[in-house]
Design a protein that fits this description.
Blueprint: H1 5-40, E1 63-70, H2 71-80, H3 91-94, E2 102-110, H4 133-136, H5 146-155, H6 164-176, H7 187-197, E3 207-209, E4 212-217, E5 223-224
Antiparallel strand pairs: 1-2, 1-4, 3-4, 4-5
Protein name: Ribonuclease T
Keywords: Membrane, Transmembrane, Transmembrane helix
GO molecular function: ribonuclease T2 activity; RNA binding
């Protein structure tokens, strides 16, 4: 059976498009790997001595705050404060390869009697060694920075969890239980959207900062009203 010129042209076009798609996928994969490699080569350890708030190992955990960050806003502010440049530690999150919306800033054990940031549990185990990259890589999709993951573990996670994996798994579980908008909203509209699309948040008082959202949980991981004080 012979193919006519029209079918040959269509077949040739299909082959060209097929290989173009493969090359495009390979190039994107290469860019992704290069972006990840840029992060993995950086020094992601965190020093308690350089932290402006410091340690509080005696505060008792009364509830938890899941803190989420609107990545486009964070990256825009980062560029504005660095003459348009992106620090190497933020290359994965704010570079051209990845496109993040809401991401996990951290899960914070909090003191129910706190009146200022330093009253909350912090660095309860002191300075901790860097976690294995193989562990941290698993959570980059939702917390796109090795330094962020390491810092949140040392500052907050180690105050309530004995294992870093358990801490990261819990914050990821809470994050994935939420339905979040994939576009920017002003605060009042954001809260209304969240309560409308997440029954567990209905009627609950949520916290917010600049490009951040805070959802609070009791010790049994049920949503509660966030205290109306600064974190």
């Amino acid at each position: 059976m012979q193919l006519n010129s029209s079918k040959i042209s269509q077949l040739a076009l299909f082959i060209v498009l097929f290989f173009a798609l493969i090359l495009s996928a390979l190039y994107f994969s290469y860019r992704q790997k290069a972006s990840i490699d840029a992060v993995l080569e950086s020094d992601y350890d965190v020093s308690m001595a350089r932290d402006s708030i410091g340690q509080n190992k005696n505060a008792k955990t009364g509830y938890y705050t899941l803190v989420l960050s609107w990545s486009p806003g964070y990256c825009q502010n980062l560029r504005a404060g660095n003459a348009g440049a992106i620090p190497k530690s933020a290359a994965y999150q704010c570079g051209e390869t990845q496109k993040f919306g809401w991401v996990i800033h951290g899960l914070w054990p909090q003191s129910a009697t706190a009146r200022r940031v330093s009253d909350h549990p912090r660095f309860c185990q002191g300075d901790l060694p860097p976690l294995e990259v193989a562990l941290l890589e698993k959570y980059l999709a939702h917390s796109p920075s090795l330094q962020l993951l390491q810092g949140e573990w040392e500052k907050h996670g180690a105050c309530a969890f004995s294992q870093a994996k358990d801490y990261f798994d819990k914050q990821q579980e809470l994050f994935q239980s939420l339905k979040l908008p994939d576009y920017d909203l002003k605060r009042s509209d954001l809260f209304a959207w969240l309560r409308r699309n997440n029954p567990q948040l209905s009627g609950k008082y949520l916290g917010a900062g600049r490009d951040e959202l805070q959802i609070c949980y009791d010790l049994a991981w049920q949503v509660i009203n966030c205290p109306k004080i600064r974190f």
